[in-house]
Amino acid sequence: MQSKAVLLKIFLLLLILAIIYILTNHAESNKDEIKANHVKASLPLHELMTSNKPLPTQQKITTKQPLPSQQKMTTKQPLPKIYAIVTMPLLTKKDLQTKKYRTSTTEKIEERMSEFITGLQNTLNHECVYRVHFLYNESNVVDYVKAHVKINTTKLVFNRVEDPRKHVTYFDFAYEKLQGEIAMYTPIDVYPGEGFRLINKDDLISKKLMYILTRHGKQEKNCDMGNISNNCNRKRYFGSHDSYIFVPNGPLSPEIRKALDYWSIVWGQENIAIHTFRTLGHFKVTNPCEVLFVYHIHCSNLRDSTRYRINTSANSGMAPPTNTLT
Ligand SMILES: *[C@@H]1O[C@H](CO)[C@@H](O)[C@H](O)[C@H]1NC(C)=O
Ligand SMILES: *[C@@H]1O[C@H](CO)[C@@H](O)[C@H](O)[C@H]1NC(C)=O
Ligand SMILES: *[C@@H]1O[C@H](CO)[C@@H](O)[C@H](O)[C@H]1NC(C)=O
Ligand SMILES: *[C@@H]1O[C@H](CO)[C@@H](O)[C@H](O)[C@H]1NC(C)=O
Q1: For the segment 93-121, what is each residue's pLDDT rounded down to a tens digit?
Q2: Does residue 311 have its Cβ closer than 6 Å to ligand 4?
């Protein structure tokens, strides 16, 4: 009789344990589901749309029936918001008296100014360009730009800087004013074209990428730049670069600032920049110009004849054309 009662007690105890086990497990899986839904809801739309890697909980969600809104998300990506940085000189017929342009003509000067404005206008009209920060140190160039640029002017912001012709100025500006944003320094006569929708800010940050692009050329108003200046070609590449795309994150070191303290028009400055951002900045510097197209307008062929080369074998970097963004 006594052993029977003991057995009954053990049986009841096991039964209670089993019930507790089933109940708690059920609660846990419910909690997971709630958590998964919560994560999904609180993620910024942007991340959901652009992330290639499945989110920790996304797999679970997608294996269930797809949400009606999900299909839309994968086909329509948000545009990257690019903050362009540009500058230009105001050339007038007075410049014909300088050594730089002595052999040129008033018509060439005017054509060159018109190319600057076209380049700036094309940059302003690009769908991925959110702002264009125009750097200047003398107000007459601002007056000129205001008089000649008529479209999409709400994107245009003027910023006074100490010396807009120094290469370091663009990076100083980006690191001071555009932390955490996609910055793009581009020469005024080089404007963005196809491919820019593919730029992913999260990748630029997490992989510490810097794209230093080689330009393309195409039919422009006064000439076909496709034949004149089109160096994004694995065979024709010789180390010429134009536009810089990166996300400023943290400070710009004094060593980098010192290395980039030169005029932006000298030859070889981009090779020094590639070398500097690789070795001192620890960026992964690449040239995906086969995917991101920038175009050069220089039909006037007006050039500062006093340009000289500054790079040496000790500070020259190269970045051959590639078709990959990461
Ligand atoms: C102004 O910029 C937008 C892109 O932000 C572009 O779609 C539009 O075509 C531009 N306007 C003109 C007149 O080009
Ligand atoms: C602007 O910068 C140039 C050099 O890039 C310099 O010659 C000029 O004096 C500067 N102007 C002002 C007002 O600081
Ligand atoms: C360059 O011009 C030549 C003729 O002058 C033409 O045959 C060729 O297709 C052009 N190349 C490019 C890349 O535009
Ligand atoms: C400067 O850079 C160019 C690439 O644009 C390279 O071909 C050249 O060798 C470099 N100059 C020196 C002295 O290393």
Answers
A1: 888 888 888 888 899 999 999 999 999 99
A2: yes
